[in-house]
């Protein structure tokens, strides 16, 4: 009897011992399941966010395609507004390149003292060609200067009657820059050289040229700002009309719990698409205009003995212009949605 009681007590102990481990094992899976649920929820939210962006882009492209006539007009207005400053900027860049490549650019006439021999004159010319901002030099001896003056002035008989040649040796220096400040620095540097009597620089036409180029830059900047504002206003008006045409749809979305961000996103994509498409068309218009003008301009440059030719838009501009236009469209859409979306609320 006592043995049976001992066996029963041992069995009860064996049956009672697994109770605590079962509780501790049951708690761990619950914590793991909660972490897994939170991770899954975050992934679901990110996937839903990406899916809504894709749907918003598809919806924007679909609605642009549905109203082809009005969408085409909007894109063309944006393209024309942007092609004008872009084309003028390309022409201004070509003007800078052409003036840099002129053989008849500003030059310095360096008159040497009368006692400088021809060998010393040529040594100075070679030394100066190694200096910064000097492209090449041209040596004009006293005899060459006298012969040229006789041919051009018509006073050959008078000059021949003189006992000595009154003209000094000359070195013509051709700089590689037409910047007025650079030319002035070069003039002062050459004037300090030994054997130099006088340095003459005709820089007035260079100053006029740089003043015209600077004026063109400022006019293009002002025109760009004005037409960029016009692009934003065009997109604002287009998006405003789109919001008004979808007023009932927006009210329904807000009734079922749609946030302003949910409603705003398709309109933002629409504005960006309008701007980006307008920028692409602007690139096509500018390139076409440059191709059309290229022949006459190249012929004109040839008549002026210039080796330069009209260049088209830089490869970086082919990307920058559409992206800049897309940002303007996005800004216009943001302004339109921020102004008019808050006025649309469900009435209960």
TrEMBL record:
Span list, region Disordered: 11-42
Presence of keyword 4Fe-4S: no
Isomerase recorded as keyword: no
Cellular-component GO terms for this entry: cell division site; plasma membrane
Chief location: membrane
Top-level taxonomic group: Bacteria
One BP annotation, GO: cell division
Residues annotated as domain FtsX extracellular: 108-199
Membrane topology note: Multi-pass membrane protein
InterPro entries: ABC3_permease_C (IPR003838), FtsX (IPR004513), FtsX_ECD (IPR040690), FtsX_proteobact-type (IPR047590)
Transmembrane segments: 73-92, 219-239, 267-293, 313-337
Subcellular location: Cell inner membrane
Keywords for the protein's UniProt record, in alphabetical order: Cell cycle, Cell division, Cell inner membrane, Cell membrane, Membrane, Transmembrane, Transmembrane helix
UniProt cross-references to Gene3D superfamilies, sorted A to Z: 3.30.70.3040
The ABC3 transporter permease C-terminal domain, residue ranges: 224-337
Cross-referenced Pfam families: FtsX, FtsX_ECD
The protein's assembly and partners: Forms a membrane-associated complex with FtsE.
Similarity comment: Belongs to the ABC-4 integral membrane protein family. FtsX subfamily.
Function description: Part of the ABC transporter FtsEX involved in cellular division.
NCBIfam families named among the record's database cross-references: FtsX_Gneg
Protein name (database record): Cell division protein FtsX
